TrEMBL record:
It comes from the Bacteria. Residues 5-164 form the 6-phosphogluconate dehydrogenase NADP-binding domain. The active site is at K174. This is L-threonate dehydrogenase. One of its GO terms (molecular function) is NAD binding. It is an enzyme of class 1 (oxidoreductase). Keywords: Carbohydrate metabolism, NAD, NADP, Oxidoreductase. Its EC number is 1.1.1.411.
Amino acid sequence: MTQSNVGVIGLGAMGLGIARSLLRSGFKVHACDVRNEVVQAFAAEGGVACASPAEMAAVCDIVITVVVNAEQTETVLFGDKGAVTALRPGSLVIGCATVAPTFAVELGQRLADKGLAYLDAPISGGAAKAAAGQMTMMTSGPADAYAKAEAVLAGMAGKVYRLGDVHGLGSKVKIINQLLAGVHIAASAEAMALGLREGVDADALYEVITNSAGNSWMFENRVPHILNADYTPLSAVDIFVKDLGLVLDTARTSKFPLPLSATAHQMFMQASSAGFGREDDSAVIKIFPGIELPKAKE
């Protein structure tokens, strides 16, 4: 068992699971989040509470950023009391946010200029797999970053794909995953909406589809939220406004057409503008007119 110091910035659904997995693996896990009550609760489990990324970076040689986007990554690394101000030369940053590949490339260079290593390492699998230490990581970066990260990656993920030594490759694969995830959620919502419109029993429809060729991981995972009328955000509508936006931005630079991605993006945009942006991404079904959604089961 190791007692190496490792820091986790961001204790959302995925970040908290990562922090707990590393704690079980024997690391001394330092954590910070904008919500102090979440940090204190993690400290009660055996973690170390930090008031800021800089405070964490003063004692950790490896810092993992598990935030939402590029803007938050920028803030926790380079903002007021950001981690970069306190990281020692040779330290490693593992970036898990879904960001534009160009941002990952630029970030790697900025950190290298300060004597820091960077691993472009987006994650997938959901909160349950993060909590079990079984999530998937899509990583890219130089050999020295992998060498330093090896034990940490083993403690936080079930599958670590090494996609190359150039920053940005991990992020490219992640946004392609998000293309499929977003399209599958939108298609699942459309299918359930048609079923409801045509008077098909929603629970029966879910049972049949999940045992038929039309099933997908997203259909199987997200439709129960609709059936239970539970739109508590595990992954919000606005996440796919952002992620499918990154997909389209990336393709636009090479003038590559993505008609299904564009349609799904518009569906999430419509749901967000209708006031559902902070609800679970399955709430995209609420854009369809003339249907009665399932009520919460008593």
